[in-house]
Design brief:
single chain, mainly alpha, 11 helices, globular
């Protein structure tokens, strides 16, 4: 009996959708958090990174409460737009966004903080506004961190299990992603199918880590070589 390819395709669909959303959200949020000071900043930053330390089942329960039929957003979406989140692929995407966003945010934030402020100030003295400074100076210089965060967020979204199970359920062909399928196959005694999916996810995760390490060393080597050429 062959392995069902649908969980693989669903996992890729969820991971791609979530990482695009996370990228669009994390860049402006990280930029604002780095460049601005305002009351409650530490509280907001703690809330942003909270999913990193919360058990996935807790994250899933919170999402289920918020987007459930009687939840504040769930009731609003269903009454106004006839849209249901729970037990749909949208629930899986939202779960992936929530758990992967802190990884992307931390990576982007660290990269923005490492940008030399003198370069940004030089652009300001030449008449560039904050928006132009950010997208022409800050973001290009922080691109390595953005790319690293993108890859990590994609890998995290692909492997999300606990929160997805809580809000999206384990519905074959609709919300059953690879991690959920592995759990289902294992419970059903379908060891061969589970092993194949485990190998796929393990190889992919190893490739992500290896690629990031190799790319990071190459980037550092290029910077060092470029620095030596200036001396």
């Amino acid at each position: 009996m062959g392995v069902n390819i649908i969980p693989i395709l669903l996992s890729l669909k969820v991971a791609v959708a979530s990482v695009l959303i996370v990228t669009c959200l994390s860049i402006p949020v990280a930029g604002h958090m780095v460049k601005r000071k305002f009351p409650g900043k530490d509280i907001i930053e703690s809330l942003i990174t909270l999913p990193l330390v919360l058990p996935p089942s807790v994250v899933g329960f919170i999402l289920l409460y918020i987007f459930g039929k009687n939840g504040p957003l769930g009731r609003l979406l269903e009454s106004m737009f006839n849209v249901r989140i729970v037990f749909t692929i949208w629930g899986a995407i939202i779960a992936a966004v929530v758990v992967s966003f802190p990884l992307m945010y931390q990576s982007v934030k660290a990269s923005i903080e490492s940008v030399d402020p003198n370069l940004e100030n030089a652009a300001r003295t030449l008449g560039a506004g904050e928006f132009k400074v950010f997208f022409t100076i800050t973001l290009p210089l922080a691109w390595n961190g953005v790319l690293a965060g993108f890859v990590l967020a994609f890998a995290r979204s692909l492997g999300e299990f606990g929160a997805t199970l809580m809000i999206a359920g384990n519905i074959p062909g609709r919300t059953q992603t690879m991690p959920l399928a592995i759990y289902f196959y294992s419970e059903a005694g379908m060891s061969h199918e589970a092993i194949v999916l485990v190998l796929i996810m393990t190889i992919f995760s190893f490739a992500v880590i290896y690629g990031l390490n190799h790319w990071g060393k190459g980037s550092a080597h290029r910077k060092a070589k470029k620095g030596d050429s200036y001396d």
